[in-house]
Amino acid sequence: MMQYGMFVLIFCAVIFLPADAQQNEEYLDIGEQLLHKGLVEEGAYTILDKLLEVGPRFAGTPQNAAAVELTHQMLNDIGLDNVWLEPVTVPRWVRSEIEEAKIAGSQRIGEERLTIAALGGSIATPEQGITAPVVEVHSFDELEELGDSVEGKIVFFNRPMDRRLVNTFAAYSGAVNQRSRGAAEAAKFGAQGVLVRSLTLRIDDYPHTGGMRYQDGVPKIPAASISTKGAELLSETLKYEEVVDVYMRFTPEMRDSVQTYNVIGEITGSQYPDDIILIGAHLDSWDITPGAHDDGAGVAQVIQGIKLLHELELRPKRTIRCVLFANEEFGISGGFAYAGSEKRYDEEHLVAIETDRGGFLPLGFTVDNEDEVVEYFQRYTYLFEPLGMHQIIQGFGGVDIIPLREQGTIAMGLLPDSQRYFDLHHSAKDTLETVNPRELELGAVAIALFAYVLAEDGLPRFIHEEYLSN
Amino acid sequence: MMQYGMFVLIFCAVIFLPADAQQNEEYLDIGEQLLHKGLVEEGAYTILDKLLEVGPRFAGTPQNAAAVELTHQMLNDIGLDNVWLEPVTVPRWVRSEIEEAKIAGSQRIGEERLTIAALGGSIATPEQGITAPVVEVHSFDELEELGDSVEGKIVFFNRPMDRRLVNTFAAYSGAVNQRSRGAAEAAKFGAQGVLVRSLTLRIDDYPHTGGMRYQDGVPKIPAASISTKGAELLSETLKYEEVVDVYMRFTPEMRDSVQTYNVIGEITGSQYPDDIILIGAHLDSWDITPGAHDDGAGVAQVIQGIKLLHELELRPKRTIRCVLFANEEFGISGGFAYAGSEKRYDEEHLVAIETDRGGFLPLGFTVDNEDEVVEYFQRYTYLFEPLGMHQIIQGFGGVDIIPLREQGTIAMGLLPDSQRYFDLHHSAKDTLETVNPRELELGAVAIALFAYVLAEDGLPRFIHEEYLSN
Lengths: 470, 470
What we know:
Two copies of one chain form a homodimer.
Chain A: H1 2-41, H2 43-52, H3 62-78, E1 82-94, E2 99-106, E3 110-114, E4 116-118, E5 130-137, H4 140-146, E6 154-157, H5 168-173, H6 177-188, E7 193-197, E8 223-226, H7 228-240, E9 245-250, E10 253-267, E11 272-282, H8 292-311, E12 318-325, H9 333-340, E13 348-354, E14 362-367, H10 371-377, H11 381-384, E15 391-394, H12 402-406, E16 410-416, H13 421-424, H14 437-457, H15 461-468
Parallel strand pairs in A: 5-6, 6-7, 7-8, 11-12, 11-13, 13-16, 14-15
Antiparallel strand pairs in A: 1-10, 2-3, 2-9, 4-8, 5-9, 10-12, 14-16
Helix pairs in contact in A: 1-14, 2-8, 3-8, 8-14
């Protein structure tokens, strides 16, 4: 029986090889057309350049509204089949113009300015600021051991990202809880405020902001990121002196929520228009940065990707939809609104591919799913070899498509070189000059190609129905 | 007989698998030690930073001599088994302080400054410069068709690098003959001088210099690179006007040759000290650039590579030798001197690995040899997967190790991301700021690891003797 089965398998392989081979050739040919057009035009970079002219695109800001208008116009100008906006309500947190901190009470070095940026969502310090002794910790365990001795103090979370990891996203994951939960954990023991080492592998004077959240039933205390240079200085000072006072003052405020939009455009499928392959990125950035890589690059790549497909007059069987999600950074508002919209009732989202890891050299794709599903998608590896991409591996897809993934959509992510990303992530260093037009474009081409091929092929029953029945 | 042979092969495989697996584990462990130490210290970047302080390291300059002294000291400071200098005589070509050009005779746009840089080895224009009509060509065929009609004119070679190619080195290869041979070809038809479009994929105002050579029996005429922005302007102007005069003036001179050195250091093999695995890069740069990527990055990687091995007290069976070659850019002087030295008589160079493609994200290695040899080295791919490198492929090794290759050494090259390299190659844009410390370090680690493993394993008879008997 075993042997018979093997013969059947071999037989099938022989039968279907010519048809597959022909289709493989066709897909490779389409890949080459996309690649050549993309690399000659470098359109993603042009889009990014225009997008960055509006300024930081933080949720709820006028600049964010301008980015909605601009990208909506860009999708319209392409001449896609459908272009529309879907409303999203986003919180409106406004950073104060003055954010300052200093080592105020060191006998050894006197006063030294520290560069900080309030974390997104933080409450304000009192108008006169906080001046309090600093306690350095590297983990929540260490904080717990200190217990009530941190009462009235500023807790300084100073655990660096682990430099030894080749994948810097893994290093980020290992350090980010200080930023997201540090204030809540420190407040449990009566701390007055927190400073969190910036999540970067560089030692410089740029603070890297990011989201944080308070915990119900725990007092809210102000929280800011401190530049790594400042963190090193503060840590060094604490080695020599038992009591070091820090002064810090920042007065952000939470205002009324604001309506913005997910920006959407699509090439309608010729046979199954309600079956969707989504390519997405988030339109917002943090407020202290141009957000060139995070996620201007992603926005530029998906707009350019669908533009390339449109201009080559490629209309697959299923719909390819480009979605620019609102407010990923400060609440995933667009991702939840999109997946939860009643417009989704008649639609089937087979695959969602997000690009939100920077516009660096693309190395492949991640598939956020179990082994056999990842292996299924690895059949497409050959398509990306000519682009210099060799990996289709298991891994996280993207934040904006988590709500879709929960509904059964296969979540995938573009996987670029990660070495440079956290040098600039959520900081003023995330500028256009750090983007290479060709690296950016290769990502756009790869996304367009994968979206097209998946929109032609659909998904086999073992993947699709299994996940719909979850 | 065939079947018997197959059984023997399978039998051997089974016998040796446990031992191999153990060795694989040992090598992976060494790789991890190198990687962790490297990424924590980022020593290659520190070395590069110091190296760039001496200024452009063009052959024969005092800065080049300072770089010899500095790197010699660095190798001594590591505490290697042997460190020494080997003399190399290099030509001394000196660029003039004033290099200028302009569109001098356009009715449409009047005078417009053009940014140029004399090509390395060019003769001077007359003291008053050249003013002559410009003829644009894109190939030597086109030049030949024009024939004697270019007499007395400036030939403007304007064939761009092919943007469609993912591998930018292939695009460079397809355009570089204009630079290297353009002057000789144009002189055959009586041209007065040549301007060559800078070999870069960016449109900007930085000229990219590089080597050129004259041809015996053909008059020498002055040759300069022109920035791509200037090339585009000139080409555009020629679309509207039949006769456009260009003025250009640069007065470099060839002086007496100078003695410099190949800088060499090694970890002596414990069993076969005369069998060498060479890791190399070139110490010189062009004169108008810091040469951070070309080839400061390579120099930093091989110094850091051998430093990591030394500090981890790894002494393989065969010798690992680090060579910083003199004057690659303007004659491969160091490469020829090294391979031709009588010191080589008692030595056997098994493999030479060069790093001279920039300090960008390493993707793998090239092996400059036939298929079966490349396949042999692919057995080591598993070692580099943890570093995010997946490719050991056929391809050029490096310019400095061509003379060794001719003598039977296996030539290999570190293969990094090529997308950004020609943005800055041979231009003032090749600065420290464009180097990422982690990308640079990953290359150093990869070279150290490959050198160590090859120095332990040596080469199988089918590779080594075949090539010695060539």
